[in-house]
Amino acid sequence: MATFQFDLVGPERILYSGAVDAVQLPGSEGEMTVLPGHAPVLTTLKTGVLVITESPQKGKRVLVRGGFAEINATSLTVIAERATPIEELTPAIIDADIAAAELLYDATSDYDRKIEIEGQIAQLREAKVALSF
């Protein structure tokens, strides 16, 4: 199967760099799967699980919280606002993120910002369930 270059950059470190078969992204307009030969796209990311398929039956999952993805036919670069590999997550970490988002929600009177934060809270709760904590 054809591969393409994938780079995942978080604020503290490079979390992944290498050839992959596919990457599933939590795009702000919906989930999307990037494969070799993908049309050029620049998109924002929402909170969710990024799934990296290195080869059949081998991959990694990373919880991302916002960011951008630049896609072209031969590469994908994700710049994440926050990113944590699944193996480094605990229920306490996700619960703390949910609590922090709830505080932000309570602190704003901006309707659009409240809607955005509600989405983040829901996505974090879904990620917690999906990760089988």
TrEMBL record:
It is a peripheral membrane protein. Its main location: membrane. Belongs to the ATPase epsilon chain family. This is ATP synthase epsilon chain. F-type ATPases have 2 components, CF(1) - the catalytic core - and CF(0) - the membrane proton channel. CF(1) has five subunits: alpha(3), beta(3), gamma(1), delta(1), epsilon(1). CF(0) has three main subunits: a, b and c. Keywords: ATP synthesis, Cell membrane, CF(1), Hydrogen ion transport, Ion transport, Membrane, Transport. InterPro entries: ATP_synth_F1_dsu/esu, ATP_synth_F1_dsu/esu_N, ATPsynth_dsu/esu_N. The keyword rRNA processing does not apply. Pfam families: ATP-synt_DE_N. PANTHER family: ATP SYNTHASE DELTA/EPSILON CHAIN, ATP SYNTHASE EPSILON CHAIN, CHLOROPLASTIC. It is found in: Cell membrane; Endomembrane system.
